[in-house]
Amino acid sequence: MRFILRAVLLLVLLALVLSLPSFASSYYLGLVIKIMIYALFALSLQLLVGCTGLVSLGHSAFFGIAAYFVTLLSPESGAGNMLWLLPGAMLAAMGYAVVTGALALRTKGIYFIMVTLAFAQMAYYVFHDTALGGGTDGIYLYFRPEIRLGDWVVLNIDNQFVFYVFTLACLLLTWAFLALLMRSRFGAALTGIRVNEQRMRAAGFSTFKYKLIAYVIGCGLAGVAGFLYAAKDGYVNPELLAWEQSGLVLLMVILGGMGRLWGAVLGAVALTLLQELFQSHALFGEFASRWHLTFGLAIIALVAVLPQGLAGLPEQLRNRRRSKSISPASAQ
Amino acid sequence: MTQTLLSAQHITRRFGGLTAIDNVSLELKRGAVHAVIGTNGAGKSTLVSVLSGELAPNEGTIHMNQQNITDWPQPRRARAGLGRSYQRTTIFPSLTVHENCRLTAQANHQHFWSWTPTSRCLKSNEAADRALELAGLSGFGDQIAGLLSHGGKRQLEIAMSLSTHPSVLLLDEPLAGMGSEETDRMLNLLASLKSEHAILLVEHDMDAVFRISDEITVMVNGAVIAHGDPASIKANPLVQTAYLGDDE
User: Transmembrane region positions (chain A) (predicted)?
Assistant: First the structure.
């Protein structure tokens, strides 16, 4: 019964998302695209934080590297070919992940957080302080990449509706991929490592290898999000790699609910909408320019009220109802 | 016939200026329980950690099945047949009892690119069933591990160690915190495992140690002060002063 309910809910949601372009304005369509890109980005971090127990504060580096990769390597006179730009952007992010992960994964806990932050800052300053990517001004991507086989253009994502569907497909594929991964033996081992790495080593799992592979996969998927972000805005700057960006996506994962894939998606939706809400002049007038304050207060309130994140809310409510129904009986 | 499965020679481990284990040698044979006893801080747990590969020794060599494994990392030793349990229970509390064992059993069937769900890994499931049966937990497979009694959790800890088909078992205080009934059950379990495994038992419960062991090594301040069968250890005046107490 629950399965059917879930399936129906999912279908309704999918139908809503697919029909959205027919009634939403271009602004709101852009907003939904942004949310989907952040959802993909948060999903990639969920694999590390919620599934493997690797709290990284440097995830923006891989997002940014991929975004710069596609922008720098796209020709200025026409659209680049996605068939190599997208895998290339992922590989660039994964390459940096192999090198930094091999070193960072030798540390644990708070040190891992600091080392990942440090490596992300290194990447940030490369783009910030050198002429490689136009320095602080950033650079433009004039044409969205297209899928081209020889002279045949298979897919052109210039049209916003097409780009919307393309982003949705990327998000759903990533989600399905991660869900399958977590159900596999590899995913089971990751869960074990998150709960008790010592026990897993004692059983015979070379946990370093597992963590490195998970790290590289997560960073490669962050690269997909970075690729989409560059294609969406047609503009990249070093702020994509800034630690605020890593912090924001980490917040999405924590607020959405750690360990559950859809928690990451929920967190991305909630935080992006909250940002949008507090930035609204129509609602907050002059105060909207100080949106960081209200945004911060809202996050504190949400974390205090929802210790298990948004995804844990149904369980939290159920537990509360159960304890309420038990307490009068036990008082007798 | 007894067969030496694990042999440690002249193991020394220092932490800064402290020598936690000082030139310790011991052998573990199939069909025998070798107990290591000693006061708190005698270096028993450190010894288990060195043997299992969690800590590297500063000096000495370790051989398992005639192979020098001194430089092997812990996971490789585990896959070669060295199982261990922990003093502190290290089960996965939110998984079921069966899932706990299946997860550890999976260590012998690691396939990085296999997409079949872990629940359908036939070999891991079989190994888990067998381990649960050996540990006397057959009827508890579907229970959530975190809800087991303390004794049940300790049994599960052993079952998880057994799930990888080890030939050598290093058990760090398996009886800690157990009632007498639970202790009896655990000792019966260890006795039943003896024929197939070489067992190292670190334990504080002296009655249990003298009941189950075939060989006892006594450690004080990191060094071995006595080694022999239970009767000779009980009679050893050095052991009586250092560990069992003068008044006995």
Answer: 36-55, 62-78, 84-105, 110-127, 161-181, 208-229, 249-274, 295-313
